[in-house]
Amino acid sequence: MRRVALYGGTFDPVHNGHIAVARALISFFAFDAVSFIPAYVAPHKRAAEVASAFHRFAMLALATQDEERFRLSTVELEAPERPYTVDTLTRLRAKFNDSTRLFFIMGADSWEEIKTWRDWEQVLTMTDHIVVARPGHTLRTDHVTPAIRARIVDLCGAKADEARRTLGASEEGRIFLTDVVTVDVSATQVRRAASEGRELRSLVPAPVAEYIRKHGLYSNRLKGE
Ligand code: ATP
């Protein structure tokens, strides 16, 4: 069975944390592909948008082009109105055949807020999920219902062969917690560094740093930060 991971996010911009997570999960869980899914921003919110969807997409294209197993999905950008994750997973589930097992990747910060997602309990049964540790956030389990908690598989500290075996033996619809990779980089940090004219190469892939500089992205102090 093929294993495909879906990595949704704003990617404003994509950074070394995203790339390190995707690479580490490919080798840890033997994923066949990781598909980056940049989020749609509603027209009425576009004025407040930091980089446009076009720039966000272009930076993702630059960051993913050299990695054979990285894919880029336009499913959310092409939607007529803002899709929630539940809508996106419904569409993607229909697109992939039954011989593909889908995994949705999220960081520990997103997991902490999972109950604010539309139809969150349904979202957690539609695919498997991989929750990745992130500095400053704990991989908690006490905020979800007992039924969901029963589907959590804690792989913190596990070796790759154990993780793959566990994943292969488990029923679908599990939530795997992993600390196989922890990277202290956020998009907020990148935008701030860019707005202060600082060097970005330790934060984003080199072509993304060059793109941000060339197009003057994030050069004004951002609203709300
Ligand atoms: P911002 O700083 O603007 O909130 P971000 O760095 O969290 O952005 P997003 O594009 O919002 O980046 O993240 C997409 C997904 O990737 C989310 O599920 C988020 O939790 C996860 N993620 C982002 N950075 C990391 C990281 N360093 N380690 C683990 N997960 C991460």
Describe the structure.
This protein has a single domain, classed as 3-Layer(aba) Sandwich (Rossmann fold), CATH 3.40.50.620. It has helices spanning 16-29, 53-64, 85-95, 108-112, 120-126, 146-149, 160-169, 187-195, 206-215; strands at 2-9, 33-38, 70-72, 100-107, 128-132, 152-154, 175-178. It is 36% helix and 16% strand. Helix 3 (85-95) packs parallel to helix 5. A seven-stranded parallel sheet has the order 3-2-1-4-5-7-6, sandwiched between helices. The N and C termini lie far apart (44 Å). Strand 2 (33-38), helix 2 and strand 3 form a beta-alpha-beta unit. With 225 residues, the protein is an alpha/beta fold. Bound molecules: adenosine-5'-triphosphate. Residues 9-12, 17-18, 21, 106-107, 109-110, 132, 134, 183, 185-188 line the site of adenosine-5'-triphosphate (ATP). Adenosine-5'-triphosphate binds next to helix 1, strand 4, helix 4 and helix 8.
Quick rundown:
The protein has 225 residues and is α/β, with parallel strands linked by helices. The chain contains nine helices and seven strands; from the N terminus they run βαβαβαβααβαβαβαα. The protein has helices at residues 16-29, 53-64, 85-95, 108-112, 120-126, 146-149, 160-169, 187-195, 206-215; strands spanning 2-9, 33-38, 70-72, 100-107, 128-132, 152-154, 175-178.
